[in-house]
Each structure stands twice: as C-alpha cells, then as structure tokens.
Task: structure prediction
Amino acid sequence: MENKFIVSLSPHVHSGDSVQKNMYGVLIALFPAFIVSLVFFGLGALIVTATSVAACVFFEWAIGKYLLKKETTTTICDGSAIITGVLLAFNLPSNLPVWIIILGALFAIGVGKMSFGGLGNNPFNPALAGRVFLLLSFPVQMTTWPVVGQLTAYADATTGATPLAIMKGVINGAPGVSLDQLPDSLSLLIGQNGGCLGEVSAAALLLGLIYMLWKKIISWHIPVSILVTVFVFSGIMHLVNPELYVSPVIQLLSGGLMLGAVFMATDYVTSPMSKKGMLIYGVCIGLLTVIIRLFGAYPEGMSFAILIMNAFTPLINTYCKPKRFGEVAKKK
Result:
C-alpha cells in the first residue's frame, strides 16, 4: 500500500520560538561572563559594556529611522542590537577610550549590519566586524591589556601581557619571554588573566554554552567541532615541539576561543543551516584559528577565522542542503 504524507489545515502547533526569545536567551547565557568581567576588571568593564550597548542601540535606531526610512521599534526591542553591543564589548580591552568604542559600534551596526538590510541579511557577524575594524585602525589601543584586579581603574590602569601574547613571543623568539610566564589552567578557567573583558573566563563561557544547549537556542555541532579541532591540531603541534607550542588545554582556555566558538560562530544568520555544514564550518574555523595563532602575524586568530568562514557560509549552504521534509531518496 502506498504511503501518503498528509498535511492538515491550520491551526498548527507553534514551537514557542521567536527571534526575541532566542536573543534574550543568549543575553542570559552571556550574564556569567559579564559578572566575571566586573569582578576582575571592575569599572572598566562596566564603562565599556554600557557604552557599547548604548551606542549599538542608538545607531540601529538612528540609521533605520533616518537613513533607511523604516520602523525600528521591532529591531530595537528584539535584543539583537543589545547582543551586538555586548559581544563587541566582550571583544575589547577594559580600558579602551569611549570614543573608540563608539566608532566600533558605528561600524558594527552601520557597516556590518544595516548596510546589508538589517537583521537576517548581514553576511558577517557585526560584532566581529566592529572588532576587526578597531583592531586594524587602532592596533595600539586594542592590544593594551589591563592587569586584572584594578576595580576602580579605567584609563590609567596598569597593563600587562596576555597569555596569547606570551605564546606568540615564544614562537617568535622574543628575548625574556618563556612559557613559564603563562598562567596555570585554573587561572585561565576562572578568568584571572589579561585579555578582552568577556573572554578571560572559560568557565563562565562554558556555563553559557550549557544553558543555550539546554534551552535549545543552539546545537552542539559548531562549538564542539571548533573545540575538538583546536584540541587535536594544537595537540599535534605540542607533541612535535613542546618547548615551542603550548598544550592543547592551554590553547582551548586562552584568548577568545571559547567566546567565539560559543557565542559568535553560532550566530544564526552567518552560520550554515545543515548539521553537516555546521561541522564543516566549525572544523575550518578551528583549523584557521590555530594556523593564525601559531604561524600568523596576530596572536589571536578566532575573529579572523569566523569572518573568513562567514564568507563561505553561502557556499556551504549550497552544497550541504538539508533533506527536504517528505522527500524520498532516489534509487540508483
């Protein structure tokens, strides 16, 4: 007997998902990392985050209303501009001048998002676009890292080297730099080390990952494929030369790897749709990140790796299309 696929008339059962619900779910997942940033960077973390969020929301409203001539109430309230502001702030030093933060927010929203038509149309992650713009435009300010524990300091904070800077110094043969200067794994896990204000605590970011997996805001494919690829590739390099390359655990806990893998590579708009595509996307991001970290000019490669793979997402979607619902495979 021939099977038939029957579609009933409406009303249908709604899953309860919405853009607004998922966006605010991501904000909840980001909250532990924000608390840790306040604990270790104090006033600087608060100033940078508040400035970035306020600027992103303002530019989303102003550009939509006066340049694109469209209603912006929905996009302001759905949380997407707030997430862009938080993620941009999390990719910045906690002593960055306010005017530079505002420029980064303008680029993230104006160029990275609104110039393509707004939410759902941007090919690149807006927060990362803003971060890379600032890194290329203001390299000194973007690579001056406050030492943790200066809760009331901001512009005059004492600065120091980050774990990734120490690793890059060892690889480049910088005098007076050794792997012994690196924080231990526990310090990297908790967040007691220099870096961008939202990336220092791997534990807080992993809590956010667990929350989003529990709420089914994201799937495991992208973050797990990135982390496994980085672990395997950096582990091979460590085995080849342990005096030059750190252990894979240190690589996983350092820099913006966790932040990028959990919160930015998983962006709905700029990541592949199929599970196979997500795995390919994640593996490529992991490989590019390690290659840039070990052999590139910059200590960190996560932002560049995600933006590069954002550009390949349409191609991945073309060749890794999910099976159509109800489709019967053709017999060979």
